[in-house]
Amino acid sequence: MANIAKKVSWSGRGDDRGERTPLLNGDEEVKYNRQDIVRSRPKEIPHNEKLLSLKFESLDYDNSENQLFLEEERRMSHMGFRCLEIRRWVICGLIGFLTGLIACMIDIAVEKLAGYKYFAVKLNIEKYTELGGLSISLILWAVLNSAFVMFGAIAVAFVEPIAAGSGIPQIKCFLNGVKIPRVVRLKTLVIKVFGVICSVAGGLAVGKEGPMIHSGAVVAAGVSQGRSTSLKKDFKIFEYFRRDTEKRDFVSAGAAAGVSAAFGAPVGGVLFSLEEGASFWNQMLTWRIFFASMVSTFTLNFFLSIYHGKPGELSSPGLINFGRFDSDIVQYNLYEIPLFIIMGALGGVLGALFNIINYWLTIFRIRYIHRPCLQVMEAMLVAAVTATVSFAMIYFSNDCQPLGQDNTEEYPLQLFCADGEYNSMATAFFNTPERSVRSLFHNPPGTYNPVTLGVFTLAYFFLAVWTYGLTVSAGVFIPSLLIGAAWGRLFGILLSFIASSQSIWADPGKYALIGAAAQLGGIVRMTLSLTVILVEATGNVTYGFPIMLVLMTAKIVGDYFIEGLYDIHIKLQSVPFLHWDAPPTSHWLTAREVMSSPVTCLNRVEKVGRIVDVLSNTSTIHNGFPVVAHTSENDEPGIICGLILRSQLIVLLKHKVFVERASSRLSQRKLQLKDFRDAYPRFPPIQSIHVSQDERECMMDLTEFMNPTPYTVPQETSLPRVFKLFRALGLRHLVVVDNENRVVGLVTRKDLARYHVGKDGLEELHLAQT
Amino acid sequence: MANIAKKVSWSGRGDDRGERTPLLNGDEEVKYNRQDIVRSRPKEIPHNEKLLSLKFESLDYDNSENQLFLEEERRMSHMGFRCLEIRRWVICGLIGFLTGLIACMIDIAVEKLAGYKYFAVKLNIEKYTELGGLSISLILWAVLNSAFVMFGAIAVAFVEPIAAGSGIPQIKCFLNGVKIPRVVRLKTLVIKVFGVICSVAGGLAVGKEGPMIHSGAVVAAGVSQGRSTSLKKDFKIFEYFRRDTEKRDFVSAGAAAGVSAAFGAPVGGVLFSLEEGASFWNQMLTWRIFFASMVSTFTLNFFLSIYHGKPGELSSPGLINFGRFDSDIVQYNLYEIPLFIIMGALGGVLGALFNIINYWLTIFRIRYIHRPCLQVMEAMLVAAVTATVSFAMIYFSNDCQPLGQDNTEEYPLQLFCADGEYNSMATAFFNTPERSVRSLFHNPPGTYNPVTLGVFTLAYFFLAVWTYGLTVSAGVFIPSLLIGAAWGRLFGILLSFIASSQSIWADPGKYALIGAAAQLGGIVRMTLSLTVILVEATGNVTYGFPIMLVLMTAKIVGDYFIEGLYDIHIKLQSVPFLHWDAPPTSHWLTAREVMSSPVTCLNRVEKVGRIVDVLSNTSTIHNGFPVVAHTSENDEPGIICGLILRSQLIVLLKHKVFVERASSRLSQRKLQLKDFRDAYPRFPPIQSIHVSQDERECMMDLTEFMNPTPYTVPQETSLPRVFKLFRALGLRHLVVVDNENRVVGLVTRKDLARYHVGKDGLEELHLAQT
C-alpha cells in the first residue's frame, strides 16, 4: 500500500531515494539506522491535507555569496554585467518564441485531429440518421474518443506522471520555492504536449490552456540553463544562470509566456506570474517577463496567421479566441451591477461545489486508482461516457435552429431537424470547447433554447468535475468558462423574458461572459490576473469593473465553503507551500518555538569523516549546515560564521578538496564556481561518492565555500517577522542565534508552512515522510 | 543665498528646523554647537545631482515589534484581524470614491472655465477678423491666460510650494520610502486641485493627469488615518493604521486610484503603483489597490455620466478620453514593426532632448528664480507667450478644412478661411490638450496639413519644455502625448505619400498613437505600466505589442543620453532614492565600508539626561538608536538587544515614563500604543519637551518600547546583499554587528543611496545638509 504515495503523488516515480546506490563509505551503523526508518514508515499513508511532506525540498532564492562567488562578481566589469543583462533578455526572447511555437503546434494539431474526428462522426451520423441504427455512430464516437484519450493517458501514466493535470499547481509550487521533482524536465514537456493534444482531441471536457503554462515553464527552465540534462547535451552557454535564483526568475517568465500564448494576454501573463510566484518585485525582472509574454503572443500570432493563410496579420489574440466584443453593443448600466454580484455569488457556490466534488473524487483516486493501468482505464471510461452523454443529449434534444447565411458553425449537424436547420445541441458538443464558449458569447439572441442550455450546463458540469484529476494532461480553464458561459447565457435569456426586448438586457452574450468569469473565479479563485486575462482575451476593457466585481464576489463566497481547486490539490500533496503572510494570529509564536533544534553544525575546518557521516544520516536529511567557529565538546552551541549547503559539500567531496591535498592541488586547478554549476541542479547523492577510510581522516576547509553572511534572527523574533524575512527574500535556511551569535536553531520552509489558520484558530500540520 | 534651497526644494518652507522653539532643557553647550553648525553650512548651496541631502527622512516599512505591539496583536482574536481586513477594504473603497470625485470635479471645472475662455476669445476674434485689429484679441487671450495662471501660481508659490509640478516624482519618492515633508497634507491637496484647474484653464501646455496621482495619494494618506491634522479633527477611527507601514500601503492604493481616474486605466494604475513603489508584492495588498482603482474609475464615470446627461452609462473611460480605436480598422502588419521601432528611437531622442533642455532650465530656475513673486511672474509670462505663439500660428497658418457634417470640433474658428471651412491650426490650440490628442488619433486622413503639424510640433515642444517645472500644478503626460501624436501623425502622413492610398499605411491615426507612446516613453521612461495605461486608455489591446516595443526602444535610446524626467527632478532635489538593485559592480563594498560608525547607542535602562542630550544633538540627527545590554566605559561596543526610534523616545519623554515615577505611574494609566499613534506622524521636536534638571537624573527603561529583534547583518556582508535586505523589507535602520553581536555600525538609506553607477564605474555621492 506504500505504493499509493508513489503513484499518485506529483513526484511520481521520482522518489528515488529508496533506490539509491548503496552507501560506499562503509558506515554500516548509519545504513542500519536508515533502513529502520524506512521500515518504520507508516504503511498506509494518510493522504490528507493535515500533513506536510518532508519529501519536498526548497529552492534557494538567496545567493550563496561565498568567496568564489564574490571573486567572480568582483572580476566582472560593468560591461560584463551589461552583457549578462543582454543575455537575460535574449533568453526571455527565446522563451517567448519557443513557448509561442509550442502553443501554435498544439493548436494546429488539436484542430486537425478534432476536425478529422468530427468529420468522421458527422458523416457516420448523417448516414445512420436515414438508415436508423445510430448506436453504431455512438460506438464509433466513443471508440474514437477513447482511443485518443488512451494514447494520452498511457503516455502520462506510464512515462511521466507529473505531466498529468494542468500543471498550474505544480508551477505555483515551483514559483513559491518548492522543488517539485521532474516538473521542469524536457521529458515532462514532451509528454505534456502529446498528452494535451490527445485529451483535447479525445473530446474530454478539458482545455489546452493550463498545460501551456506548464510548457512555458519547462521551456524556460531548459533554455535558461543552456543545456538539457535529459539529452546529455551541454551548449556551454548561459552558465552564469545555473542556480535557483536565476532559474526561478526565468521560470516566472516562462509561465507568463505560457499564459500569454494561451489567452493572448501578455499583461495577464505577467500578473499571473507575479500573483502566483514572485515575492520581491523587481522592475527589470518584470520587464523581462513582459517581454517574454509579448514575444510569445507575437510568435503564436505570426505562425497562426501563416497557417490561416493571412501571413503578417498579427492582430488576432492567443490560442483561445473569445472573439472581440464590439464596444458599441457592450454596455452596462448601474442597475445591472446587483445582477452581476448575484451571478458572482452563484459562481462562487457552483465553483465550491465543483471543488468539493473534485476533492472527494481526488481522495477516492488516491485510495483506489493508483495503478497506471487503472488510471488509463478510468481516462478511457470518462472519454467514452463523455461521448455517450453528448450523443444522448444531441439525440434527445430537438432544439433546431435555422442555418444562417453567415454560418460560423463548422460542423452543423442536421440530424432530425428540418432541412436548412441544424441541431444546436450538437453544435455545443461538436466543437472544441473554446469554440463553444465563443458561440455562447457572441451568437445573437435566440440562438439557444433555454432548456438545451440548462441540460448542457448540468451534464458538462459533472463531466468536467470527473475529468479534472484524471491521468491526462488537461486544463480546467476552458471547461469552467464553458459551464459558466452556459448558465450565464441562460441567466441572460431568463432576464430578457422579464424585460422588454429593447432593453439593455436583450443581449444574453454579455451575461455569458459574466457567468464564465464567475464560474472560473469560483473554481480557481484568482482575481487580479484573471480579470486582466479575461479583459485581454475578449479584447475589451469595458467589462473590467464588472468582471472584477464578479471575481471578487465569487472568491469571497467560494472561500466560505472550500479553497480554490489548485490549493486543494497542493494541500492534498502535502506541499510546504508558503502563503503571502503568516497566519494573522501567529504573533504568539517566536523563532524559538518554530525552529528545528538542535542543529547539526560543522566546523570551519571539519573532518571529512564527520561530513560524510552527517550527509549520509538519512534520519534527518538536512540540506544546509551552519558553520561555526569551533563546536566545543560540551554541546554548547558555537558562534555562527557561515552556512554551507549539502550540494556544495557534495561537490567538495567529489573533488576531494581536502586540506591535506592542498599541496598536490597546487598542480591541479583550483575549484571554481563552474564546478558547482556543472553539477547543478542534479547533484549526485552522497552514496555515489567514494570516500576511503584514509580520506575520512582528512580535513576540509569550508571557509572559501560557505556563505559567510547568512541571514540570522534572534530567538525572540515573532513568527510573522521571521515569515516576512523568509518569504520576502525567498530563503531556504534561516539561522536562529542567541544573544552572543551562537547557533541555536534553524528555520526552514516546513517550519513556517506548518502553521495555518484552521476552524478554531491556529493549527499545526503534522510532518510526514511521504 | 541660503534662500535658494528653501524656496525651490520640495520641502519648501517645511524646513522648520531653523524656526524651532528654543531648547528648554538648559543644555547651553549643545545649543551652541547647533548654531555653529547652522553657521557653518555652505552659503551657496550647490544644487546638483552629485549630492545627497540629509534633510530627507526615511519611512519605516518595518513594524517596530515591541512588547506593546506584540501584546496588542496577541490580544486580537482571529475575528479582530478579519475586521481589520474589512476596514482596509472600506478605506480603499473610500479612497477610490473620493479620488474619483476629485477627478470629476477637476474635469468639470476645467471644461467649464476653458469653455468660457475659448468662447470669449472666439467671439472676439470673429469680431475683429472683419474689423481688423486682431491684436486686441491677442491681448484679450494673453490676459485671460495669464490671469488664470496667476491665480494658480500665487496659490502654489505663496501657500504650498510642494503642490508645484505633477507630483509624480514626490509620490515616487514617498512610495520608495522617503518622507517628503508636507507632501500628503490636506492643504497640499486643496492647492493642487485649485492650481491644476487654473493652469489647464489658463491654456498652458500641461495636463491634469499627473496631479490626479498626487491627489489620490493625499486622499489615501488622509482617509487611512481617520483624521486631519490640518483641520485638527480626529474621527477616532482607523487608529490601527497610524504607522508608516499601513500608510504607505494606502498611499500606493491612492496613487493607483489617481492613475485609474486620470486615464481610465485601473490595471495600469495598479502596475504604476507597483512599478514605482512596492518592493514586496503582497497579493491581498494588490487586490485592495486594484479595488481602489476600480472604484475610482467607476465613481468618475458615474458622476460624469450624470453630468453629461446620460446617467448610468458607465462604459466611458477616465478623465482622459482618447476615443476607442475600432478593432476592424486598426491592424498592423509585420513589415510595420521596423517602422514602429524607428519611431520609438525617434521618441527616445526627442524625449532625451526634452529632458536635457528641461534639466538646464531647472538648474537656471534653482539659481535665479527662487522668489515666489518671480515664480508667479515667470508662470504668467509663459501663459502669455503660449497665447501669443498660438495666436501667431493660427494667424499665419492658412490651413483651412471643410466643416464636416459630423463636426466634432467645439470651437471651429473660421478666421480667414472661406465660408463652410475652419482653421485647423486653431482647432489644435482652441482645445484642451486632451481633445487635441483625440483629434490627432481619430480624425480621418487628410484632416491635417503636414506643415501645420510640423510647426505645431516644434512650437508645442518648446512650450512644454518651458512649462514643466513652473510653479504651477501641472502634469507632463498630456503635452508629451500631444507632441508625440503630432509628429507621429506627420510621420504617418509622410508614409502614406510614398505608399498607395489603399495600403495599411493609409491611416495616420495609428502612427499618431505610436508617436504619442514613443514621445511619452522617451520623456518619462516607464514601460510596463505605461503600456497598460495606453492600452486601457485607447480601449484596444491590439496595439499592446507595438506600444511595448516602442516604449522599450524609446527607453533604451533615451537612457543613452540622459535619465527620465522624473528621475532628473528627484536627483536635483538630492533625494536618497533607492533603486531596484544595488549597482552591479558594488560587490567590492561590504557593510563595514558603507555603514555609519560609530553609532550612538543607548542602554537598556538609560539616564534621561543622556537621552535628551542625544536627541538634542543636532550635529548628528539620528532617528534610530541601537539599544545595547550595557555600554562599557572603554568605548567597546555593546551587545545589541534592540532598536528604538527617536519618535518613540520623544513620546516616552513627553509622558515622563521614568523608572523613578513607576510607583506614581501605577495610579496613572500605563503608556499604550495609542499614545504613539496619537503623536504619529508629527512627533513634537525635542526642544518642545520640558525636562527639568531633576528629571534629567531619572532613568528610563526602554525594554518595553524598543524593537527587541531588529534585523542585523555581519560586517562582511556585501553591499548588494545589504541592499537586497534593506530594499525588500523597506527598512529604515539596519544594524551592523560583529561576530559577538556587538553593534559596530548602522546602515541607513543614505548609506545605500549614495552609491551609483557613473560614467567611470561606481561613484559615491556627497552628503549635504541642504
User: In angstroms, what separates the terminal alpha carbons of chain A?
Assistant: 12 Å
Which residues of chain A form runs of ≥5 with pLDDT under 50? 1-8, 11-46
Tell me what portion of residues of chain A adopts beta-strand conformation.
Answer: 5-15%
Major beta sheet, strand line-up of chain A: 8-10-11
Oligomer: homodimer
CATH architecture of the domain at 328-380 and 395-573 in chain A: Orthogonal Bundle
CATH class designation of the domain at 328-380 and 395-573 in chain A: Mainly Alpha
According to CATH, what is the topology of the domain at 328-380 and 395-573 in chain A?
A: Clc chloride channel
Rg of chain A, rounded, reads 28 Å
Give the CATH superfamily of the domain at 328-380 and 395-573 in chain A.
Clc chloride channel
Largest sheet of chain A: 3 strands, mixed
Helix content of chain A: 55-70%
Q: What structural class do the secondary elements of chain A suggest?
A: mainly alpha
Q: Which pair of protein chains has the largest interface, and what are the residue counts?
A: A-B, 89 and 89 residues
Global shape of chain A: elongated
- List the total number of helices of chain A: 29
Q: What is the number of beta strands of chain A?
A: 18
| pLDDT averaged over residues of chain A | 82
